[in-house]
Write a structure and sequence with these properties.
Length: 295
C-alpha cells in the first residue's frame, strides 16, 4: 500500500501543471522560442504575431541569439504571441509561451504561478490628464511640495474627490489606486481599461479625468496622439518599482539562460545604447541601475 501511495504521489507531481517545467527541452524539440508580449505597451512591447518591437522585445531577442549559439539550435525560430495581461501568467505557467516579454512588477501573488528574471527596468507610476483640466485637479496631481497645514488634506481631497480615474486592468496600479481612494476617503470612480491607448482615448473623450500608468509609456502615447497638445503628463512619480520578465516556475536551467542573456544585453556600452534607443541618454542614476541589474 505504501509503495502504491508513493507511486501515485510521484505520478501526481509529474502531471501537475508546471511542476517540472523544462522549457529548454521544449525549445530544442520544436526549434522555436515562443515569446508572449503585450501588444499595446510601447516603448516596451508592441506589434502582432508577425512582428514585435520594443525595449523588452530587444532584450528577449538577446535570449534568442544566445540560444542559437547552443549545439543544434542554429536554426532557432522566434514566434510572437500577443496576449492580454489577464491571460499572460497562465500562458507562461501552462507552457503556451516560453517567456513573457513585457516587464511586470514582481509580487508574491504572481510568484505563486510564475518565476521572474532579474530586473530589467525601474517603472515609475505617472498620470496623464487634459491640459484644460481644472486647476484643483492639476495641483493635486502635480506632486508639488506643500506645507502640511490643517487645510492640506482638504485641498488634496477637493482636487481628487468626485473624479473618475482610469488604471490598466490586471496591473498593481489597480490596488494602488484603490488604496489611495480609501486612505483619502474619496468618492471617486476607478475605471479599469484594457490598454494604454484605451486609457488615453478616454481622457481625451472626457470619460475619465486622468489615467494612471507607467510614465514613459504615457509620454510615448502622448507623443503619438494626433491631439498631443490637449494632453499633459505630470512630472510627478507616485510609485516606483523594479520590473522583470515572467517565465515558468521550477525551471532553473531556463531562468539561468534568460538571466545570462539579459545581463549581457544590459551591461556596459551595449546596455546604454539599447536604453538610449528607446528612452534617450540614460541619467547617472539610470546608468547605476543598469549596472545593478546585470550579474
Amino acid at each position: 500500500m505504501n509503495r502504491l501511495f508513493a507511486a501515485l504521489f510521484l505520478l501526481s507531481l509529474l502531471l501537475a501543471p508546471g511542476a517540472w517545467a523544462d522549457s529548454l527541452a521544449r525549445i530544442h524539440a520544436n526549434h522555436t522560442l515562443v515569446l508572449g508580449f503585450l501588444a499595446d505597451n510601447a516603448p516596451f512591447s508592441e506589434g502582432d504575431e508577425h512582428a514585435a518591437s520594443g525595449y523588452a522585445i530587444d532584450l528577449c531577442q538577446a535570449l534568442a541569439a544566445r540560444l542559437r549559439s547552443a549545439p543544434g539550435l542554429a536554426d532557432l525560430q522566434v514566434r510572437y504571441q500577443p496576449l492580454p495581461l489577464e491571460q499572460a501568467l497562465a500562458a507562461v505557467s501552462g507552457g503556451q509561451v516560453d517567456l513573457f516579454c513585457s516587464p511586470l512588477v514582481e509580487t508574491l501573488q504572481r510568484r505563486e504561478s510564475v518565476s521572474f528574471s532579474l530586473p530589467v527596468f525601474t517603472a515609475g507610476l505617472g498620470v496623464i490628464l487634459r491640459r484644460d483640466a481644472d486647476a484643483t485637479l492639476q495641483a493635486a496631481l502635480s506632486g508639488a511640495p506643500r506645507e502640511r497645514t490643517p487645510t492640506w488634506r482638504g485641498t488634496v481631497n477637493q482636487g481628487l474627490n468626485k473624479r473618475s480615474f482610469a488604471v490598466l486592468k490586471g496591473t498593481t496600479n489597480v490596488q494602488w489606486a484603490q488604496q489611495r481612494v480609501r486612505e483619502l476617503g474619496l468618492q471617486s470612480r476607478l475605471v479599469e481599461v484594457a490598454s494604454y491607448q484605451d486609457g488615453v482615448d478616454r481622457v481625451l473623450r472626457r470619460e475619465v479625468d486622468a489615467f494612471f500608468g507607467e510614465r514613459l509609456s504615457l509620454l510615448n502615447y502622448q507623443a503619438r496622439s494626433a491631439q498631443a497638445d490637449r494632453l499633459q503628463v505630470s512630472d510627478h512619480l507616485f510609485e516606483m518599482a523594479s520590473v522583470a520578465l515572467p517565465l515558468p516556475r521550477n525551471d532553473d536551467a531556463f531562468r539561468l539562460e534568460v538571466d545570462h542573456a539579459l545581463s549581457d544585453a544590459l551591461r556596459g556600452a551595449a546596455g546604454e545604447a539599447l536604453y538610449s534607443r528607446y528612452f534617450g541618454p540614460p541619467s547617472p542614476q539610470q546608468r547605476l541601475l543598469l549596472r545593478l541589474y546585470s550579474l
